[in-house]
Amino acid sequence: MVEIENAFFSVQQICDSGQCFRLELLEEREEADGKIHRRYGLPAFGKYLEIRQCGQTVSLSCSLEEFDAVWKGYFDLEEDYGKLIASIDPEDTYLCRAAAFGSGIRILRQELWEMIISFIISQQNHIGRIRKCIRLLCERYGVQCQKENGEIYYAFPSPESLAEAGDEDLYACNLGYRSRYVRETAASICRGEVDLAAVSAMDYEDALQELQKLRGVGIKVANCICLFALHSTEAFPVDTHINKVLREQYPEGFPFERYAGYAGSLQQYIFYYDLMGGRV
DNA sequence: CATCAGGCGAGAC
DNA sequence: GTCTCGCCTGAT
After folding, report:
1. Quick one: how many helices (H) and strands (E) in chain A?
2. Neighbours of A6 (CB within 10 A)
3. Residue A279's pLDDT is what?
4. Catalytic residue among A72, A132, A147, A220
5. Which residues of A105-141 are buried (b: 16+ CB within 10 A; e: fewer)?
6. What is the mean pLDDT of chain A?
7. The nucleotide closest to A133 (CA, C1' atoms)
8. Which pLDDT value is given to residue A214?
9. Of the residues A181, A206, A228, which one is the last residue of a structural domain?
10. Does the CB of A128 sit below 7 A from strand C?
11. Is A183 inside any structural domain?
12. By residue range, what is the domain housing residue A33?
């Protein structure tokens, strides 16, 4: 087990910020001292990580070696998010409020293929339903695996398994009109029309163009993939929430020059604030 | 009941 | 190149 103490690390906020659809809250209980203790599960990289958080203390069910090799990078723990937040223009009260509200969010380094399919499914969709779609896809097309305690979970389905899926079966996973996008994108990857390893090695601009060769991947989805899989923190996905905030809070335009290279990280605070700000 | 969700593709111009 | 429209489906 590895324990982390960090003021800028809230698993719940990462979960609610809608960047990782397979991270799920398993248990929530209030201890005798009034502190809330939460337990989460996360299947990724062929492993199943169990996470616990109480206050600012997060513990991960892995060895120190595994933590250094996988999860430290995954949760972007080398990055100082306090410094990032401190760099925000103090006169930009909206952005300051948004960052303070979501100060525990971190930009994860997730698997490229999983992000491609997840964000294709995310279009014109609610986070709850996106999670359900992905859960169904994993259960029907993912390889069955076992947690350390023997419980079963499902890996994210491979491109091959989704390419071979019937359109009707994908429809049954609640994908709606996106089922065609998922199947065609999977087939396209299998045929090598887009090479995932090559995309991983590309810079932001090239990856953005290359990803849009896939069915169902437009500028917004491509930016999400760049941000959440390739960790291109300059990627700034504009969806209906961000669009609304840009219109209402930044009529003169968002100051991208001031935040060159990491506007995408700030985007995530804005998105989460607009999504969750009303219901604390 | 209508509208909208972390949009995109196709077709019109 | 820019604009408009239709699209699965569940929540509100």
Report:
1. 15, 7
2. 16
3. 53
4. A220
5. bbbbbbbbbbbbbbbbbbbebeeeebbbbbbbbbebb
6. 97
7. C9
8. 98
9. A228
10. yes
11. yes
12. 2-78
User: Which CATH number covers residue A35?
Assistant: 3.30.310.260
**What average pLDDT does this structure show over A168-194?**
97
What is residue A140's three-state secondary structure?
helix
A71/A45 Cα distance (integer angstroms): 10
pLDDT value at A60 more than 90: yes
At residue A278, the pLDDT reads 66
Where does chain A have alpha helices with state H? 11-16, 64-66, 72-74, 81-86, 93-101, 112-122, 127-141, 159-163, 167-171, 178-190, 196-201, 204-211, 219-228, 240-249, 263-276
CB A53, CB A38: distance < 8 Å = yes
Distance separating alpha carbons of residues A14 and A10, to the nearest angstrom: 6
Residue A167 confidence (pLDDT): 84
**Residue A227: nearest nucleotide (C-alpha to C1'):** B6
Provide the domain count of chain A.
2
Sole residue written with tokens 């525990």: A104
pLDDT at A239: 98
In the annotation, is A72 catalytic? no
In Å, how far are A163, A185, A208, A216 from A268, measured between CA atoms? 31, 26, 18, 22
Lookup: tokens for A18: 């809608």
Same domain, A142 and A72: no
Q: Is residue A88 part of a domain?
A: no
Strand C, nucleotides < 7 Å from a protein CB: these are 7-11
Residue A133 and residue A267: Cα distance in Å, rounded? 25
Question: Looking at the structure, do residues A22 and A128 belong to the same domain, yes or no?
Answer: no
Looking across all nucleic acid strands, the nucleotide with the smallest C1' to CA distance from residue A185 is B8
Closest CA-bearing residue to C1' of C8: A176
> A171: Cβ under 7 Å from strand C?
yes
